[in-house]
Write a structure and sequence with these properties.
Structural class: alpha/beta
Distance between the termini: 35 Å
Bound molecules: ligand BES, zinc ion
Oligomer: single chain
CATH superfamily of the largest domain: Zn peptidases
Strand order of the largest sheet: 7-8-10-9-13-17-14-15
Shape: elongated
Strand content: 15-25%
Largest sheet: 8 strands, mixed
Number of domains: 2
Number of strands: 19
Radius of gyration: 24 Å
Helix content: 25-40%
CATH topology of the largest domain: Aminopeptidase
CATH architecture of the largest domain: 3-Layer(aba) Sandwich
């Protein structure tokens, strides 16, 4: 986006397209008569006759039929204003974004008044518009050589509003920071695994650190060996690609305390190892670093908005491959924590990567832990593809997290982790833990295994195996990577920062 501007009068607008919300009674919109008489009355007639529908997210495009400087009007239905929420507005603007992408309109004006309600201010409209449009118009360009389409971007965006301009600018910047970070995470997940290797993922983190002034550490194989990170190293053993343990530190207060640790599974490709995946299940496993992408995306928002909350991000990056040197079922490995693990299934590799990443986050001073991972097919069986599964050891922390997820509209559902589950994770004749107690309720075993390394630290586990990738276009974006949890993690951090400064 090259230019952002604000205008108070509809008649001054110059644009390819003017975006207008249509609540069920458009005649009630403040300033509706700013349209020319003939246009506004015709639109009302068409709404009455049902030729233009005002249902939620219904889109109608038409020439402006007026002397004004906008060439077309894009009406988007809002349904009943009473039922409109921030999350629904975000969806409305994402559908607008999809339409702008499809029609390649790069010079866009948005009239804010029709979108406001008793609850939603102009600033809310501008925030959800900047977020929704950037999310909705995302497209992974890919590597086709026969494509002569140029990348779409909105060159000029104008808001028509009489609200305080500085406040609107700030709202716009927040929405943009959120959506661009989500798209950044989507891009990483959509990238092919030969191009997004652990060292490339580390390079991406280094760029973030340079841009946002984070402290950064990227441990290579030798450093990991010296520290004793036997769990992630076992997963990496069969690979030609070096692993990376990526650490980003955002210091917001004078002292390094009260630190939230965000830990991501960064398996850049998961073949399953010797417990090899069937060929159909292997395709798509380039996305097994979705947790890492979520954590790095959240850090990008934190870097932009700089909340008063210390955060450390730890990403364990490796692929899970086969060779004469690869680890195998029956191996016993020693994790960074000192705990020994009997490997029963090399395809349960994510929990091994996370074991060392979580331990390292604790060693770096994390007082709260959230791990994010495409960890189990079990979560898809339990909750489907539209709900992230969660476990926790701390009610209060989880409640705070759930409030953030309600704000972003990213659905999370908690599963139980009982003493008998823990017993099964600890059952082994030869080691402290086993990495695969069974397939019955195995989302819980996956997350519960990570829980063995957190101790008393308040902890939330997020299994995004179902939500990280979408099989078809959805409310906020196209088929493919969703960037799930980027927004919720950042929202939680912002909320925790606000609480601290109260
Ligand atoms: N990366 C997979 C989980 C996954 C499945 C992610 C489907 C995205 C879509 C994970 O490493 C895995 O293979 N988990 C196994 C665990 C089992 C061996 C205990 C699974 O869920 O089948
Ligand atoms: Zn696996
Ligand atoms: Zn995996």
């Amino acid at each position: 986006m090259k230019t952002l501007s604000f205008e108070t009068e509809l008649s001054k607008v110059e644009a390819d397209v003017l975006v207008v919300g249509l609540p069920e009674h458009p005649e009630n919109i403040a300033g509706w008569d700013a349209f020319t008489e003939s246009f506004s009355s015709r639109v009302l007639d068409w709404v009455r006759s049902g030729d233009i529908r005002t249902g939620f997210k219904e889109i109608v495009k038409m020439p402006s039929m007026s002397e004004q400087g906008y060439q077309r009007v894009l009406f988007v239905g809002l349904g009943s204003p009473k039922e409109l929420t921030e999350d629904k507005l975000r969806q409305v603007f994402a559908s607008v974004g999809k339409e702008l992408l499809a029609s390649k309109y790069g010079n866009v004006a948005i009239w804010t008044a029709p979108f406001t309600t008793d609850e939603l201010t102009c600033a809310d409209v501008v925030y959800t518009a900047s977020e929704g449009i950037v999310l909705g118009s995302y497209k992974f360009e890919g590597y086709r050589t026969d494509s002569n389409e140029k990348d779409f971007s909105i060159d000029a965006l104008q808001f028509i509003s009489t609200f305080d301009e500085e406040e609107l600018k700030a709202a716009y910047a927040v929405g943009k920071a959120y959506a661009e970070a989500v798209n950044g995470a989507r891009h990483l997940v959509n990238m092919p695994p030969n191009l997004l290797t652990p060292s490339k993922l580390a390079e991406h983190a280094i760029e973030l650190a340079e841009k946002y002034d984070f402290e950064i550490e990227t441990l290579g194989k030798q450093e990991m060996e010296e520290l004793g990170m036997g769990a992630i190293l076992a997963v990496n053993q069969g690979s030609a690609e070096e692993p990376r343990m990526i650490v980003l530190k955002y210091t917001a207060t004078e002292e390094w305390g009260d630190v939230v640790g965000l830990v991501g599974k960064g398996v850049t490709y998961d073949t399953g190892g010797y417990s090899l995946k069937p060929r159909e299940s292997m395709v798509g496993m380039k996305g097994d670093m979705g947790g890492a992408a979520a954590v790095l995306g959240a850090m990008a928002i934190i870097g932009e908005l700089r909340p008063a909350q210390n955060v450390i991000a730890v990403v364990g990056a490796t692929d899970n491959m086969i060779s004469g040197e690869a680890f195998k079922p029956d191996d016993v490995i020693t994790s960074l924590s000192g705990k020994t693990i009997e490997v029963l299934n090399t395809d349960a590799e994510g929990r091994l990567v996370l074991a060392d990443a979580v331990t390292y986050a604790k060693q770096c001073g994390a007082n709260y832990l959230i791990d994010v991972a495409t960890l189990t097919g079990g979560v898809i069986v339990a909750l489907g593809n539209d709900k992230t599964g969660a476990l926790t050891n701390n009610e209060e922390f989880f409640e705070e997290f759930m409030e953030a997820s309600l704000e972003t509209g990213e659905f999370v559902w908690r599963l139980p982790l009982t003493e008998s589950d823990k017993k099964r994770i600890r059952k082994s004749d030869v080691a402290d833990l086993n990495n695969s107690p069974g397939r019955d309720g195995h989302m819980i075993f996956g997350g519960g295994f990570v829980g063995e390394f957190v101790g008393d630290t308040p902890w939330i586990h997020l299994d995004i195996a179902g939500t990280s990738d979408a099989a078809a276009a959805h409310d906020l974006g196209p088929k493919g990577a969703t960037g799930v949890m980027v927004r919720t993690l950042a929202t939680l951090i912002e909320r925790m920062a606000e609480k601290d400064t109260e």
